[in-house]
Amino acid sequence: MSDVTGEQESLSPADELRKAARILERHAEYGQRIIDEAKRQRDQDKRKGYFIGMSGCLLPDGAADDGISVNAVSDEPIFTLTPVTNRPDIGSLSRALIPEQRPNLSYLSHLSRAITHELYIAERIAKTPQAALNVAYRAISLLRLKTNCLINGISFSEVPWGQIAAHSADVEMQPLEEPRRALWGSRSAITEDDLTWVTLRLARDFDLHEQPSYRLAYDSAADAPFLKDSRTAVARIWSGIESLFDVQNELSFRLSMYAAVLISDDFQQRIDIQANFKRLYALRSKAVHGAKLDTAKLDQALTHSWCLLRDLLLACIRTGPSLPSTAELDRALLGRQLARDDGALTRATDRAHDA
Q: pTM of the full predicted structure?
């Protein structure tokens, strides 16, 4: 240690300045490499659309580098989910932002450190930024439901992160939400099949989202994993579950029966779903009314209730463009099956309109 100290102390002022200059040169070279790579990507990238910076995303090993995509008939992607590379340094970000956004530079730089992946939405299916945000919210929520990968949308722009350094005073970036830590861990990966599944069911989701009861359940599933308190999250989840059914009395019994026939057509599965529902309903009552619960029971009430709400929402998507009525569910209890089409509609998602 003394040798190193002695060597440092032996440097002359001129040597110290030369050493500092070399460090600054390396930083400048690094920044220039970011700019050069951003220009290369911009020259090669012909996509026109919108980009959602995301956190919490995992892709399979085979897609970890190149990402996944869903292509249209023309072989042009309408959705891609790719890792973020060539992240701009703070100088590049400052230079690229429109002047009105430069006061937010520190916050945007903070958000950028949480972004690991980027969801691209093609302009052909979302003509305006608001339409793209509508599609993004539903796509991200459906991916959560399908995969249990608890992703977050962090930022929104018309420029991918890897190309920002090639721009000057023309990038507008909209923060969406703070990076949120989920109440439970998830190591689920999003596959190309999952993204395709979401693409084929977005139109159905838009139809269902017109109904307040579905929208409440949907938003509950989206928000609950990221609330700060487990008991509050359980209450939020169950408000969503109960909103799907028009039931005012005999709640535990009738809700459990309706949930069973909505989720499955198989008799044994219905029995299992009803029993699980009633068990979770009892845990829910203890959680939301402040009864003493050990950590394991509270965690079970939280995660299993969310999975139940997820299964119900996926069942709604499989069943039709509107929620089944109480009368339809009663007929299903008497033996008439609900009509299922799996929700894989082929209508274009450009039915999304500006809110």
A: 0.87
Q: Domain residues for 267?
A: 210-351
DSSP bridge pairs for 79: 70, 121
The answer for residues whose C-beta is within 8 angstroms of residue 265's C-beta and 6 or more apart is 337, 338, 340
Number of residues in the chain: 355
Beta bridge partners of 168: none
Q: Note whether 256 and 327 are same-domain residues.
A: yes
- Residues facing 97 on adjacent strands: 171
Contact between 88 and 31 under an 8 Å Cβ cutoff? The reply is: no
Radius of gyration of the chain (CA): 25
DSSP string, 23-44: HHHHHHHHHHHHHHHHHHHHHH
Which residues lie below 8 Å from residue 234, measured CB to CB, with a gap of 6+? Answer: 224, 283, 284, 287, 288, 298, 301, 302, 305
195-253 pLDDT, tens digit per residue, is: 999 999 999 999 999 999 999 999 999 999 999 999 999 999 999 999 999 887 778 89
pLDDT in tens, 90-135: 889 999 999 999 888 988 988 888 999 999 999 999 999 999 999 9
- CB environment 114-139: b (16+ within 10 A), e (fewer): bbbbbbbbbeebbeeeebbbbbbbbb
Measure the CA–CA gap between 116 and 58, rounded to whole angstroms.
9
Query: Comparing C-alpha atoms, which of 331, 345, 36, 79 is closest to residue 193?
Result: 79
Does residue 36 sit within a domain?
Answer: no
Q: How far apart are the first and last CA of the chain?
A: 65
Out of 131, 160, 191, pick the residue that ends a domain: 191
Distance CA 18, CA 119 (A): 44
